[in-house]
Write a structure and sequence with these properties.
Layout lengths: L2 H11 L1 E4 L5 H15 L9 H6 L5 E3 L7 H7 L2 H11 L4 E11 L5 E5 L11 E5 L12 E3 L22 E3 L6 E5 L4 E3 L6 E10 L10 E4 L2 E4 L4 E5 L2
Antiparallel strand pairs: 1-8, 2-3, 3-10, 4-9, 4-11, 5-8, 5-10, 6-7, 6-9, 11-12, 12-13
């Protein structure tokens, strides 16, 4: 694996897909732990305003905060740490791991940026670990706009936005996807029984720990800590 080539590709595109990155048995064990935690019909945690305005029906779980060792084992993966350091610098830091569960028939996620893009030096890195295959059969496909991490603010609903260059990702169990927090991305509706991924968020040193508290959608900016829309976008 040519780390520097991968870093250059990430810096150009704002995302990176690495298949067969993690041990299949570890992924299976993690997936079983996720299903044991959620079951098939967990309740949404966000309020109705967020669910309707963001077209986002994802239920989070923070397993490392509960001491679930399996997920810490993933976080300590040597090559993952090496690649993260090469992208973010020597003083990068780990923020938290968050499992994202979507039920069958849910909307997925609308176009968004995981953190405000006004300062290009202030961003988080999404390190998405897939413990199951994501395909046309399951739905929940992540779609990204290559290079958009350098394009600034996601267009509002009132502004034109071409999807001609959009790339659809179909990761399998064991795939790692790295995604820049300013990169425009969305998730398609879930058609299979469920859809999960686990995000090991990290950031360059000097980035505020709450960098992902505000998420940018085409119709709003939303602050998760206070569960409120802080800007309505036209």
């Amino acid at each position: 694996m040519d780390i520097q080539q991968l870093v250059a590709q990430f810096q150009r595109d704002g995302y990176l897909v690495l298949d067969n990155f993690f041990d299949k048995q570890l992924m299976q064990d993690c997936n079983e732990a996720i299903l044991d935690h959620f079951g098939m019909s967990p309740e949404f945690l966000h309020n109705d305003e967020f669910l309707s305005q963001a077209d986002t029906e994802v239920i989070p779980w923070f397993p490392e905060r509960e001491g679930v060792a399996l997920f810490s084992e993933v976080n300590r993966h040597a090559l993952l740490s090496e690649l993260t350091k090469a992208i973010l610098g020597d003083d990068w830091y780990s923020q938290y791991s968050m499992v994202m569960f979507s039920k069958q028939g849910t909307k997925g996620q609308a176009w968004h940026q995981d953190c405000p893009p006004e300062n290009p030096e202030q961003f988080n890195l999404n390190r998405l670990v897939y413990t199951m295959d994501i395909s046309e059969h399951t739905g929940g496909l992540t779609q990204v706009m290559p290079g958009s991490h350098k394009a600034g603010l996601l267009p509002s609903n009132g502004q034109p936005m071409s999807e001609d260059d959009m790339v659809t990702l179909t990761p399998k169990a064991g795939t790692l996807v790295l995604l820049h927090g300013h990169c425009w991305h969305k998730v398609t509706p879930v058609t299979g029984k469920y859809r999960v991924s686990t995000n090991y968020r990290s950031a360059p040193q000097g980035t505020p720990e709450d960098i992902t508290d505000i998420c940018v959608y085409r119709n709003m900016r939303y602050r998760f800590s206070t569960s409120e829309t802080i800007e309505v976008r036209g």
